Amino acid sequence: MGDPHPKLHATDLTRGFGRPPHVVDALGPLELTVAPGEFVCVVGPSGCGKSTLLRIAAGLLRPSTGQLRIRTSSPRPAAMIFQDYGIYDWKSVRANVRFGLDVQRVPRREANARADAWLDRLGLADFADAYPAALSGGMRQRVAIARGLAVEPELLLMDEPFAALDAQLRTILQDELLALTQSLRTTTLFITHSLEEAIVLGDRVLVMSARPGRIIAEHHPPFPRPRTGEVRTDPEFTALKSELWDLLRKEAAPA
Hints:
The chain is of the alpha/beta class and about 260 residues long. It contains 7 helices and 9 strands; from the N terminus they run βββαββαααβαβαββα. Helices cover about 35% and strands about 20% of the residues.
């Protein structure tokens, strides 16, 4: 039985690109429900419409048909974190983290205090006055995460945020995000190519088909919360990863 008051609810959602007679069907039809406080990971083959789904949720794209609704008490309910960081080179680290608060016209003193609190929480306090050029890739992604969370979003949308990082740093940031989201219980929709990432982070892992992307499977990682990165060594982790890979391999195979 589904949540009677989901945070996000998509019904018969489709998206195409181009104009007739050359329309490319990118997504759907797709049904999706995300409960308040739930962390949902979406995996699927390249080009299946994962990022398109996220951009519709963020209000950056309109669906071709169907609808996606976010139940919210805020005029700006969602924050989006991209793979390429999306931070501004000409702004200091503090100003980058404060950016969403400035857009919301939060008073500067309060905005600085909230930005500094998030910089401290993510280990960036010593770099508040630095500029992104002085930061490593991992630090830049921490800045992007801090900026997203500083606005206290009701829905956090993450589009392969760790894809550009090396394996060791990716694991570290996965574990940091796991700890953060478990303490905040922020509703999160997370797009990834990494099955390991999806299993470590997700309450649910949704598998999408090849284009046009539809949800073809749903798995609940069998690890209770609070959860740590140590689940990677659990035999059930390996078994679920293998099962998901079998699904994806079939979808990615040439027709």
